[in-house]
Amino acid sequence: MKTSVYKQIAIACSFGIFLFVFPARGQVTVDVSKITCEQFLAFSVADPRDIAIWLSGYYHGKEGSMIFEPQRLKDIADRLKSACFQRPNSTLPVTQVIAKLLQAEK
Fold it and tell me: Is pLDDT of 38 > 90?
């Protein structure tokens, strides 16, 4: 009888430790159109590099382009950061700022 109780306690403790060590991760979604330059620069939503990669994929998809240019991605991300530092852009959504940058390229 004692062995059964000890086994149950051991199993319960193991399960508790498992939950503590491996917490459940909730799925997070972000509306990129609402990310401001301020949030982009402050890492408050995600790493700016990740956001820039997503934006690149989004705009390439809109254009139907399947070409990946790593250096161009880095250049655009750097230009986006610079543009976001400018005073009037800090409260604008990054999607508006990058759209202006890409439009100027054409």
Answer: yes
